[in-house]
Amino acid sequence: MPEALKLEKIHRLAMAGVIVVFLLLCSSFLEISPADLLTSFPRFLSFFFVRFLPPDFSQWQTYVPQVLDTIFFAVVATYLSAGISVLNCLLMSERVNPVRWLRSVVRIFVSFLRNVPVMIWASILVYAFGVGELVGLIALIFMTVGFLSRSLADSLNEIDERNLECLRAAGASPFQVLWHGTLVLFQPALVDWILYCFEINIRSSAILGLVGAGGVGVLIQTSIRLFQYRQAMCLILIVIAMVLLTEWLTNKVRARVV
Questions:
Q1: Segment among 18-22, 133-137, 156-160, 190-194 with least mean pLDDT
Q2: What is the pLDDT of residue 100?
Q3: Which residue, 76, 141, 136, is CA-closest to 114?
Q4: pLDDT tens string 164-174
């Protein structure tokens, strides 16, 4: 065996050993026992199949307003966040915004929004505004603006610079270079990321209800607290169906537009 292949094999084995040791150290620090996992998982399955199944669909009509709230949260948050994120990504991009300090300020603002989890935003806003739909909407907007702005800025910076140089060499004005050389090529990534964020917002808007931010998550939390597990299972299945339908619709739109 050549010396280079031997060194590569040793390197891979060493990396695998480091990963295993790191996993064992983390498990030891968290005091996770494999025996507890093996004994707890069957108890969980037994509890789930006995208490949650079969789901109770007898009151599904009463869940419709909260389900619609969850969908409308995602729609409104995605629309508002998309406009803010497009402006942020233009200000963050070196190809569009030559002012360095302004790029840095916007990047810091976006990083702050992105690095705070949505559940923390919702918990803080619940204390500030009380329980209600406004809290869920603002939390979704904060989360989406942080994620979408960074993603769109990265996609904008990945556009081939040679296309812009060709337009400049042909005598195009700065606005024509921005429109035809940047924004037109940027459109597929823009649509793709917005649809992806809409899928995320559908899931997140259901979760936000667990902290009192409105939507179907409030019903799930209430049902579990009242030990109405079969009704909670009905709501969980509704959320799953809603997420799958959203993914199917966005894939259709993505295939047609992108």
A1: 156-160
A2: 80
A3: 141
A4: 666 666 666 66
Asked if residue 222 belongs to a domain, the reply is yes
Cα distance between residue 248 and residue 108, in whole Å? 35
- On the question of pLDDT at 19 being above 70, the answer is yes
Structural domain includes residue 54: no
Domain containing 125 equals: 63-257
Residue 227 maps to which CATH number? Answer: 1.10.3720.10
- What pTM, to 2 d.p., does this model score? 0.72
Residue 109 lies in a domain: yes
47 in a domain, yes or no?
Answer: no
